[in-house]
Design brief:
- The protein folds into three domains: about 50 residues, no CATH class; about 210 residues, Rossmann fold (3-Layer(aba) Sandwich), CATH 3.40.50; about 90 residues, 3-Layer(aba) Sandwich (Rossmann fold), CATH 3.40.50.
- It is about 40% helix and about 15% strand.
- The protein contains 15 helices and 13 strands.
- The chain has a six-stranded mixed beta sheet with strand order 4-5-13-10-11-12, with helices on both faces. Strands 8-7-6-9 form a four-stranded parallel beta sheet, sandwiched between helices. It has a three-stranded antiparallel beta sheet with strand order 2-1-3.
- Helix 8 packs across helix 9 and helix 9 packs across helix 11.
- It is globular.
- The protein binds ligand F0G.
- The site of ligand F0G has 23 residues, from helix 5, helix 9 and helix 13.
């Protein structure tokens, strides 16, 4: 017979920040390191007391910090500290991260069919993906609760970010990744930054289950996106793009969706931004999944009547996930933003990627699901031609060099946008020959 779990310590009477279980509503102190909810195993999320000043005053505070060059306020995450983790204080561990560009590209806009399209390039973060935004907060919290070591399951980018931030903090890191299904750049980062790297014979969903069990057994702090502190950092993708737009919200924000941490974080950011008077209306979210790994899109088509699970297949290994952990939070994000969930094929992902890459911007395959999804939604008339659309590119082009070189050297059939390398002898005549001289 197992003993009933001890009741979670309640937060102090008037806290600035506390944790709430999304399933049973228990309120838990923000420094309780247990995950998930110790009472019912539901997902935890953070609540913050609204900042003393909202609206224009809060916008002015954030605007005054823009361009700060030193210290934690130079971070595109901690600039929004009031909305992220107001109580983090001296524990903050920042690279810094964030401050990613919002890019206009005629070539990508034309291909998508939205001339005003903007690309928020999260691949410009220190380890090359948006995960750094969550990890700075996650590792900060690990330090706060006195964690001995940190761990995560990952399709690669979370592992790279965890490995880097753990190394910066001097904490041992454990990462579990699916063997043979992680892009080369990401695996290289995890190894380079010194994480103990386990190649699990299974898929990402198996890794997540194992990480969950192992962290509990070994007393290691789990930093997957089930950890609510990670999501607080990822909210700043939205806050930063809103600030870059002068707090004038776009009509749509389009984001690739795998484990659904980002979708959930974006929804929370938008609802809070509206409640705190940073924006006067909530843009619609469009979450985009790969056709072969689309349990969330399947649930959406059924009106979210049931949670679906699939055996995932896609070239976009970052989002090759069949049983997304943040499902319930993401449902709320889609509902709160009157959002949609759509799918794109691997061919559409690879074509979108070739367009983004060919425009000189570059992104990894999962990221290309965002412009590919925007294109599909425009073709279907869900996104209208004059709508203002921001698509989030989640990872850097160098994350997955194998997919790039395979695409450009494929012969059967040769992809429309392939840029085949040409092998020659070391003679000028050969260069002239291939250049048509
Ligand atoms: N894009 C990239 C480049 C990613 O690495 C991920 C997730 C996503 C999109 C999907 O975001 O899970 O919040 O819906 N990568 C995780 C990882 C799963 O382990 O690196 P999500």
């Amino acid at each position: 017979m197992s003993a009933a779990p001890p009741p979670p310590p309640a937060p102090p009477a008037s806290p600035v920040t506390w944790q709430v279980c999304a399933s049973c509503g228990s309120e838990i102190s923000e420094t309780d390191p247990r995950l998930p909810c110790p009472r019912c195993r539901g997902l935890l999320e953070l609540r913050h007391r609204p900042p003393a000043q909202g609206g224009n005053a809060l916008r002015a505070t954030f605007d005054a910090r823009w361009g700060v060059r030193r210290g934690v306020l130079a971070s595109g995450v901690w600039r929004y500290g009031e909305a992220v983790l107001p109580t983090a204080g001296e524990h903050i561990l920042s690279y810094p991260e964030g401050n990613t560009p919002l890019l206009a590209s005629g070539a990508v806009g034309r291909w998508v069919g939205a001339p005003e399209l903007l690309l928020k390039h999260e691949g410009q973060n220190p380890t090359g993906s948006f995960k750094d935004r969550g990890m700075t907060v996650g590792v900060t919290q690990a330090r706060r609760v006195g964690a001995r070591a940190v761990a995560c399951a990952s399709t690669g980018n979370t592992a790279a970010a965890l490995a880097a931030y753990a190394a910066l903090a001097g904490l041992p890191a454990l990462v579990l990744v699916p063997k043979g299904q992680v892009a080369l750049g990401k695996l290289a980062q995890a190894l380079a930054f010194g994480a103990r790297t386990l190649l699990v014979r299974g898929n990402f969903d198996d890794c997540l289950e194992l990480a969950d069990q192992a962290s509990e057994r070994l007393g290691v702090y789990l930093l997957n996106s089930v950890n609510p502190f990670r999501l607080e950092g990822q909210k700043t993708i939205v806050l930063e793009l809103l600030q870059q737009l002068g707090w004038e919200p776009p009509d749509w924000i389009v984001v690739p969706a795998g484990n659904l941490g980002n979708t959930a974080a974006f929804g929370k950011a938008l609802v809070e931004a509206r409640a705190w008077g940073l924006i006067d209306r909530v843009p619609r979210l469009a979450a985009v999944q790969a056709e072969g790994a689309a349990p969330f899109a399947q649930s959406f088509r059924g009106g979210f009547a049931q949670r679906c699970r699939v055996e995932p297949h896609t070239v976009a290994t970052a989002i090759k996930i069949g049983n997304p952990a943040s499902y319930e939070r993401a449902v709320r994000a889609i509902r709160d933003s009157k959002g949609v969930v759509t799918t794109v094929s691997d061919d559409e992902i690879l074509e979108a990627k070739a367009v983004v890459d060919g425009a000189g911007i570059g992104c990894e395959p999962a990221s290309a699901a965002a412009p590919a999804g925007a294109r599909r939604l425009i073709q279907e008339g869900v996104i209208r031609l004059r709508d203002r659309v921001v698509a989030v590119l989640t990872g850097h082009v160098l994350k997955d060099p194998e997919t790039v070189t395979r695409y450009h050297q494929e012969l059967e059939p040769r992809p429309a946008r392939a840029n085949r390398p040409i092998e020659i002898e070391a003679r000028l005549a050969e260069v002239e020959r291939v250049m048509g001289g």
